[in-house]
From TrEMBL:
The keyword GTP-binding does not apply. This is D-inositol 3-phosphate glycosyltransferase. It comes from the Bacteria. It comes from Streptomyces resistomycificus. Residues 14-276 form the DUF3492 domain. Pfam families: DUF3492, Glyco_trans_1_4. GO terms for molecular function: glycosyltransferase activity. Signal peptide: none annotated. InterPro entries: DUF3492 (IPR022622), PelF-like (IPR047691). Keywords: Transferase.
Length: 506
């Protein structure tokens, strides 16, 4: 539901932030980034269309007066209001939905995805899409389609239960289409995926330019998540087909794409983005807000900060710490950060792993900390163990605090660290432990790395640079009917290759 806030100002640049599971209803890196933009641009009027869980999530950020409105779009709460279409309208929507599903399942029909999506967007605006997808006819369309000869999904023996599951997942994923799309200014999606849907509708219906910023690669993270999801292959084929084609349509239609690192850029180009429409814009921090941390703890300590989530792969970090403790029996691992609702089972699994390895006494989950600088100061070495990242705030914040880091080689980590920290393969406890031990054994090297890391942040990753870049983009985009011509970012460190979108390989 909408939450009114400040008054609209005549003549001010207007931006609608499109978010999913982040600002302004939760904390975390992307939420911090959104708050930085909003707080740093009092001359810009912001609205927020936030895809949420149930719609009952409170606003947890202090919103300044130039945030005019926050509209929560719940994916898992009560369905959008409306009634099922009848007669000719039902037949038209049935045809569009069949075209949509065919595009998801048949590579020869993918050109039908966009027209079908926009037809369904019009139905969502009329209040008929969600009731249609919750009725029997939608199930019938899918069961008839994926049993057609020649479709690969047919070979996996889809069942009625699969059809019910896949249709329900699509109904929830498409709910953001029912949100009123922005009619002017710039629509700025701060992730790919379902948050973009109102932006695509705004572009198609009102010509509002779409700006896309990907911190992590949304599609890659869906691939990772669905590897272990409790669904049979027919369901995964439908849902991942939707996310893949949605990514491609977003990349094609965005007036400008601003990935947070060059690794994301490779995925975007592979997904169909015009290289001339991509401009890398790094996250930034205020070095004055993250000063040098000061003396290290006396006992050898590894610290970590972030959201307790499987994508952060704390299990690998705990296994690496167990190896470190063989060398340093007095070592500690301190984990700072909240556990999102629904993530309690993962935290319990991590705690159980620490106990199973015999290190429950030295591994502490300390929850949210009032001042995040304390989390970085708590360690001799700051760790990052994620299996997917964009350009992680916790890493550049720790660097600004002058701490040496050990990080996994994902996303923009190498671009952030350069030669001021150690980078190891993801999901490799032995490599992570070896790097941590290397730094714990050499205080002089830790100190030199920390000083170099802070200098690197000051020279390349300041908040002022980020805000000034986006203010310029916000002012420039509405004046361009087509895509902005931009120069590619200078290359310092080669980014790893990415797999093609035509498969689920990573």
């Amino acid at each position: 539901m909408p939450v009114p806030h400040g008054a609209r100002r005549t003549g001010a640049t207007r931006v609608t932030l499109l978010t999913e599971g982040t600002y302004p209803h939760s904390h975390g890196g992307v939420s911090v980034w959104c708050d930085q933009l909003v707080q740093g641009m009092p001359d810009v009027d912001f609205d927020v269309v936030a895809v949420t869980g149930t719609g009952r999530e409170p606003v947890v950020w202090d919103l300044p007066p130039h945030v005019s409105r926050v509209l929560s779009v719940p994916m898992w709460g009560a369905p959008p209001e409306g009634r099922a279409p009848r007669g000719r309208a039902r037949n038209q929507l049935t045809g569009a939905y069949e075209q949509f599903l065919t595009a998801l399942l048949d590579p020869r029909a993918e050109d039908g995805f966009a027209p079908a999506l926009y037809a369904m967007a019009r139905a969502a605006a009329d209040g008929t899409l969600s009731p249609f997808l919750r009725a029997d006819r939608a199930i019938t369309v899918l069961t008839a389609l994926w049993n057609r000869p020649g479709l690969a999904v047919r070979e996996s023996g889809p069942t009625l239960h699969d059809a019910l599951t896949a249709t329900a997942l699509l109904e929830h994923a498409l709910r953001p289409l029912a949100a009123p799309p922005p009619e002017s200014g710039v629509a700025h999606a701060v992730s790919g995926g379902v948050a973009v849907l109102p932006g695509l509708a705004a572009l198609q219906q009102h010509g509002v330019p779409l700006l896309l910023t990907e911190h992590g690669v949304y599609l890659r993270e869906r691939y990772l998540g669905y590897r272990t999801a409790p669904y049979r292959w027919p369901v995964k084929a439908v849902v991942l087909g939707f996310f893949r084609l949605l990514a491609q349509e977003t990349y094609r239609k965005a007036a400008l794409i601003t990935p947070g690192n060059r690794y994301n850029r490779l995925w975007e180009e592979e997904g169909g983005a015009d290289p001339e429409s991509i401009r890398t814009v790094y996250n930034g921090v205020d070095p004055a807000a993250f000063p040098a941390a000061g003396p290290e703890p006396e006992a050898p300590t590894l610290s970590w900060a972030g959201r307790v989530d499987p994508i952060k792969d704390l299990e690998t970090l705990i296994r690496a710490f167990a190896l470190v403790r063989h060398r340093h029996p007095d070592a500690r691992l301190r984990l700072f950060g909240g556990t999102p609702r629904g993530g309690e089972a993962y935290r319990e699994r991590c705690e159980a792993l620490a106990a199973e390895l015999g290190h429950a006494d030295a591994v502490t989950f300390e929850g949210r900390v009032d001042d995040i600088k304390d989390a970085y100061a708590a360690g001799n070495v700051v760790m990052l163990s994620s299996i997917s990242e964009g350009f992680p705030f916790t890493l550049i914040e720790a660097m600004s605090c002058g701490r040496a880091t050990v990080s996994t080689d994902v996303g923009g980590v190498r671009e952030a660290v350069g030669d001021t920290g150690l980078v190891v393969p993801p999901r490799d406890p032995a490599a992570m432990a070896a790097a941590a031990l290397e730094l714990l054994a050499d205080p002089g090297r830790r100190r030199a790395m920390g000083e170099a890391a802070r200098l690197r942040v000051i020279e390349q990753f300041t908040l002022r640079q980020t805000i000034d870049t986006f203010r310029s983009i916000y002012r420039e985009l509405p004046t361009h009917k087509g895509k902005l011509a931009v120069m590619p970012a200078p290359v310092e460190t080669p980014a790893p290759a990415v797999s093609g979108f035509g498969s689920l390989a990573l």
